[in-house]
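Sample entry (144 residues):
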Amino acid sequence: MASATLCCYAKAAWEIGGVMAEQDERAIAAEIRAAFDAYEAALQTNDVAALKGFFWDDPRAMRMTTDGGIYGHAAISDFRRGRDVTDLARELTRVEILVLGPDTGVATAEYRRRASGRCGAQSQVWIRRQDGWRIAAAHVSLGV
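Predicted structure, serialized as tokens:
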């Protein structure tokens, strides 16, 4: 697997509401990256129960694709149960974590599907909830 970068920091976003120490930013980025990695592991094995748990349990959660949007936690869960899993294995070629605040960040990834060679990209807005980091919004694009 190609190496992936861990973090980049949005200092300008911090300056809007106050400045946090760089070690706090790094700690938040590491937390988001750990949640992202756990999500990726569940995705690779099609662990539908785990995947369901990574999304914010709220009707405002969304997952966008080139085919349109899936809105709400229940609809995202239904999508997971019925999706085609024949070409899930993938290699991440780049991962970036952008910390926007103490409870919000964005994970972006570029990848290549192992079986088909198709390349794709995704972005996820992660929010910290009482039960941990959850994906509030995601966008996934997969090339032809």
